[in-house]
Amino acid sequence: MKSNYNFFKQFFKNKKMVGAISPSTKFLGKKMLKNINFNSSKILIELGPGTGVFTDLIIKRMAKDAKLYVFELNKNFYKDLVNRINDHRVKILNDSAENIEKYLDKEVDVVISSLPLMVFSNELRNNVINTSHKSLKKDGIYIQFQYSLQSKKILQKTYDKVDVSFTIKNIPPAFVYTCTKK
Question: How many CB atoms are closer than 10 A to CB 92?
């Protein structure tokens, strides 16, 4: 309950950074992660984890030799994640998603994004999408959720294949984009 209040508070402090009034549900998390092969995915990135609902699910499923880079720009969420998560496979970074390449020396298997793309400026949105795409290996996947279908055309310009699914089991209901780089 404390994390819900904190999330709500952070939303009103910065609506351009926190795109919802409450954390995502585990139902949405399971839908986001269902197309990831956790046995073969060795380098994963999570963008905008907020309170870490998806982060916890990823950590439970990822291989023992995998690495998860978590990018959280909100200092309050970042500090909570650092204090709560103690796993040698996870690196939590207080930096922008635009700077993925600064931290990696290999291509990435999966990018999981909870960023509110449609509230970003066009420049920031394009930078995040392009940097994520550039960091992915061939056949890598980018998974993004949004509360509308507005991102579909934008993602189709960058990715070879974009599949969209929907879940009502989230507040608000959400669309999940699974994008593949060929």
Answer: 24
Q: Find out whether 33 and 58 touch, Cβ atoms under 8 Å.
A: yes
Q: What are phi and psi of 68, to 5 degrees?
A: -120, 125
Integer angstrom CA distances of residue 129 from 116, 136, 158: 12, 11, 8
Q: What angle do CA 125, 74, 87 make, to 5 degrees?
A: 105
Q: Tokens representing 122? A: 């066009």
Helix axes 53-61, 26-33, angle to 10 degrees: 50
Average pLDDT over residues 101-120: 94
Please determine, for residue 54, whether its predicted confidence score (pLDDT) is greater than 70: yes
- Whether domain 2-180 has CATH 1.10.645.10: no
For residue 104, give every residue at least 6 positions away whose Cβ sits within 8 Å of its Cβ, in sequence order, or none. 43, 69, 135
Q: CA nearest 24: which of 60, 43, 59, 48?
A: 48
Whole-number pLDDT of residue 22: 52
Given a cut of 90, is residue 23 above it in pLDDT?
no
Give the integer Cα–Cα distance in Å for 23 and 110. Answer: 22
